């Protein structure tokens, strides 16, 4: 009998970690506090529930680091990617999923696995023995968070994450909005029309920015500070950085032609992406917000095409907690002071569904190998997964450590390729080609 691996948290990271370890022959117990203990962000008790966007971002495995991470997870028989592919929605070059069927499928696969069991309980103390992975994500419970803080002797780092609103498709005015992916990107007609676009004139944009600036917003509790992650800024915070910030960000009008008025170029465009397979729900892309609910409906209905919008979910804001991984974890993702405990997912300081699941995949394999008495090296540094884990476990500057998406800036340079924008396409292809070889070699070494 091998030792059981215990995983705290059944989100993206915990689910993937359990799948990987179980497929290596290790018995796994997932400890998930939901639905017994609810959070304000989750709606169900499903494992791997998506609480913010429904997008896994770019699926381009030759020119994008996120797409490369997709490729590596697929090559490693990743559950999260398999279920994402199964429930894929049109999204141009991105991988968007039908969130509820996705989470249901992940839950069904895990609960049906003979080596996996799920216990719905809350763990509030750090275990003293056994093999554990803490994958509690950004919404780690107060009890466990306090236990982690007491053990590490350092304050937990935190930032604020905001949730984008979701609109009922039937309430969108299609006499104003039109379907088109930016630059008509996509291999099929459905992909090339994966987004709804709402155009704004100069006057409408300026009025919208004025409304954002004066809208009622969520108050922070005493002692909290708004240390936002730059990849998920509320629209109000972006607007505060300059009146044109949104127009050069999520509301950029480039690559789009108004089907109702093709001769007039919009000054700004709000995009909505399909959020379910039925096409009845659309989320407002990049519109994370901390406006109060009443203010949200008023301000968002100023967007042309959304004058009579009905909302399936309004935006929200919550505190995301993560540890200072560069000082606390070794390169096997183990807590240095308690090496029988690993950390995985967003709590380690990676940002995004894909990155969280990837760190779960790696932690699950490393833990299972240790249990089986066949320790393995961590992911190769030139792979996407390796670049990310090396960053959070030592490559980042501990004093300024902040959540990080995977990106080519984390990769070792490839010799012989010039820098700058002109050489970027060839350089990125060299990164991905090298990564795929190293990743496949790493996987082959385990078989």
Automatic annotation (TrEMBL):
Pfam families: GIDA. The keyword NADP applies. It catalyses: uridine(54) in tRNA + (6R)-5,10-methylene-5,6,7,8-tetrahydrofolate + NADH + H(+) = 5-methyluridine(54) in tRNA + (6S)-5,6,7,8-tetrahydrofolate + NAD(+); uridine(54) in tRNA + (6R)-5,10-methylene-5,6,7,8-tetrahydrofolate + NADPH + H(+) = 5-methyluridine(54) in tRNA + (6S)-5,6,7,8-tetrahydrofolate + NADP(+). Its cofactor is FAD. The keyword Cell inner membrane does not apply. Its main location: cytoplasm. Residues 5-374 form the MnmG N-terminal domain. InterPro entries: FAD/NAD-bd_sf, MnmG-rel, MnmG_N, TrmFO. Keywords: Cytoplasm, FAD, Flavoprotein, Methyltransferase, NAD, NADP, Transferase, tRNA processing. It is found in: Cytoplasm. It comes from the Bacteria. Its EC number is 2.1.1.74. FAD binds at residues 9-14. It is an enzyme of class 2 (transferase). Gene3D superfamilies: FAD/NAD(P)-binding domain (3.50.50.60). Belongs to the MnmG family. TrmFO subfamily. NCBIfam families: gid_trmFO, PRK05335.1. Catalyzes the folate-dependent formation of 5-methyl-uridine at position 54 (M-5-U54) in all tRNAs. This is Methylenetetrahydrofolate--tRNA-(uracil-5-)-methyltransferase TrmFO. It comes from Cognatishimia coralii. The gene is trmFO.
């Amino acid at each position: 009998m091998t030792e059981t691996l215990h995983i705290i948290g059944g989100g993206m990271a915990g689910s993937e970690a359990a799948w990987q370890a179980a497929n290596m022959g290790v018995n796994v117990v997932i400890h998930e506090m939901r639905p017994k203990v609810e959070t304000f962000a989750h709606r169900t008790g499903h494992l791997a529930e998506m609480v913010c966007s429904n997008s896994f971002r770019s699926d381009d495995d030759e020119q994008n680091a996120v797409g490369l991470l997709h490729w590596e997870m697929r090559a490693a028989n990743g559950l999260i990617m398999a279920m994402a592919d199964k429930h894929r929605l049109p999204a141009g070059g991105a991988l968007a999923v039908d969130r509820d069927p996705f989470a249901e499928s992940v839950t069904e696969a895990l609960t049906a696995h003979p080596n996996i069991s799920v216990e719905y309980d809350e763990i509030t103390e750090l275990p003293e023995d056994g093999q554990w992975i803490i994958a509690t994500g950004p919404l780690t419970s107060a009890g466990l968070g306090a236990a982690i803080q007491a053990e590490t002797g350092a304050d937990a780092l935190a930032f604020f994450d905001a949730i984008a609103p979701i609109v009922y498709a039937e309430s969108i005015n299609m006499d104003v909005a039109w379907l088109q992916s930016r630059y008509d990107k996509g291999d099929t007609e459905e992909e090339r029309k994966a987004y709804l676009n709402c155009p704004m004139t100069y006057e409408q944009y300026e009025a919208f920015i004025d409304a954002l600036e004066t809208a009622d917003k969520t108050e922070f509790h005493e002692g909290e500070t708004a240390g936002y992650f730059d990849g998920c800024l509320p629209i109000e915070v972006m607007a505060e950085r300059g009146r044109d910030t949104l127009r050069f960000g999520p509301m950029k009008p480039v690559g789009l032609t108004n089907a109702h008025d093709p001769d007039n170029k919009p000054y700004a465009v709000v995009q909505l992406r399909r959020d379910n397979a039925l096409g009845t729900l659309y989320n407002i892309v990049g519109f994370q917000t901390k406006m109060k609910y009443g203010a949200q409906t008023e301000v968002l209905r100023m967007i042309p095409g959304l004058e009579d919008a009905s909302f399936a979910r309004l935006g929200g804001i919550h505190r995301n907690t993560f540890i200072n991984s560069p000082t606390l974890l070794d390169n096997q993702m183990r807590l240095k002071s308690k090496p029988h405990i690993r950390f995985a997912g967003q709590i380690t300081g990676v940002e995004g569904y894909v990155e969280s699941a990837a760190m779960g995949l790696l932690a699950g394999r490393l833990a299972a190998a240790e249990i089986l008495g066949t320790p393995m090296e961590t992911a190769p540094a030139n792979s996407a997964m390796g670049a990310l884990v090396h960053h959070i476990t030592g490559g980042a500057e501990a004093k300024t450590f902040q959540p990080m998406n995977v990106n080519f800036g984390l990769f070792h340079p490839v010799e012989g390729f010039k820098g700058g924008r002109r050489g970027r396409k060839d350089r990125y292809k060299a990164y991905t080609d090298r990564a795929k070889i190293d990743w496949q070699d790493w996987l082959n070494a385990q078989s």
